[in-house]
Each structure stands twice: as structure tokens, then as C-alpha cells.
Amino acid sequence: MFEAIEKILDLKKFKEEIFKGKIFVFQKSQFTLDLIQEIKTEISSEYDGELEKIHYLDECETISMNLVSNLKNSKIFKELFKSFLIERGFYNNNSYWDQFRIRIAPAEDKFNYREASRISSHRDTWGTNIHQQINWWGPISSVDETNTMIFYPEFFSKPVKNSTSTWDLNTYLDHRKRNDFSYPSAPQMLEELPEQVKILPVTIQPGEILCFSGCHLHSSSKQKSEKTRFSFEIRTICQQDLDDKSQAPNTDCDLKWQFPKIFRNINDNSPLKFTR
Prior knowledge:
By secondary structure, the protein is an alpha+beta fold. It has helices spanning 11-19, 30-44, 60-70, 75-87, 169-177, 239-244; strands at 2-5, 23-26, 95-97, 101-105, 134-139, 149-151, 200-201, 209-213, 218-220, 229-238, 264-265. The model has no long low-confidence stretch (mean pLDDT 92).
């Protein structure tokens, strides 16, 4: 299900395969290695210890929260990522993206801050109800099966019970403005997956970048680990896909609205708006 790729030769076909559930792994390039190095340099200005061992510090949660907050949406990170999209044949002038996020998944599952915690099973499209969404993810530190992201491939087209019918992005954003974290940051899954469910752990290296549909059901690893994971993520939407209604299936999202406003044009930063 993971397919290694150097460059996109046919963008339309590439996205059709993404929307059918294929997961691509873009190989290392100078742009991706520069991106990882730039992120590590920025992290070291606030925390100069070993990334995988940050959980041993008494103040690890505070440090982690400050890092993900201060490094979010960095201009240099997004410039390097844009260069990567151009280099690999994905970028066009009608592409949109959301915030560039650094995420920290602790070795011990004890943090409460979403971007500095292990994440439970979810689809990213549960938060936007836009099924043209494509996710990009890459490790900053080393990952193995105990501290990585995992996919549940059989549930790409199989529904699960979730709270999308009652969750609202605007309500969440209003709470965040007040530094109130009582409202869930995303819809939640409301059932347990089978004990023997098939999983696909991601074990790519820093400098490699994972690309997949936001409709995939995925989570942080459930295993006990000795390493904290540092990774980055960003999501894109292409206007042409919206116009053509080219998208992944809506398997089980019951959001009342769609939320395009979190996506901005890569060129001019204008907000995404539906034209049809």
C-alpha cells in the first residue's frame, strides 16, 4: 500500500490513486533534507537536548507545548515545503494549504495538548468535511513501529461510529481563542476497532515524506515506546479537484458544514472558497 516515488509524472492519475486510498512515500531530496535541518535548527534554539529523549525531563510537557506553538506555520518551513511540491510535480497556482505544524508524540502517552500528544484513531476529513484533502507527513526524528503513525487500511471505505454529527470547528476555534481546551480539537471515534485489526505502521526516515488522503483512518502507535517522536504535517487542497468533484469517498463524516477557511492559497494567501 505504501509506494515509493521520486517525482509525479501524471498529476491527475496521481491524485486519482490518492483518492482511492494509495499511500505514497516521496524519497529524500536536497529540499526535504534542508527542511528537516531547518526544523532541527529552530528546535535547538529552544531545546538543545536529544529529541527522542525529551520525555525524561520533568518539564517535558511545557517544553513540547511551547515548541509546537512557536514553530507553527514558520515561513521558512513553508517556503522549503513549497519548493518540494514544485520539485516533485505537485504544485500549481490553484493549490491551497493549511498550517505547517510540528507535532510531538511522547514516548509515554500522558500529554493533554493535542499537538504534543499521541493522537487516537481519526480521519482528518472529519474536521473539514472536504474530501479532496491530501495530507503530507514526515518524521523529524527517527521512528520505529513503537513511536510512529499507523493506518487501518480496511477502514478507508468502511465506516466507524464517530462524533462528527455534533462537533463544530467554529466552536472549537472560539474555545481556543480563550485558551480553553475543554472542547475537543477534532471529532472523536466512538467505537473500539477489532482486536486483530490490520495495521500499517509508517517507518520512513527523516527526509522522506508520506502523502495520503485525509480520509484514511489513522492514529499514533498504541505500543509502549522508549522514544518521543517529532514530526511535521501539512494538508493541501487543489481548486481543480473541487471543480471536478474529484475526491476520496465520504465514508462516515456527518459534519453539517464544510470548513474551507483554514486553507490558504499557496501563492497569495487568499482563503479557499467554493466556486461551484
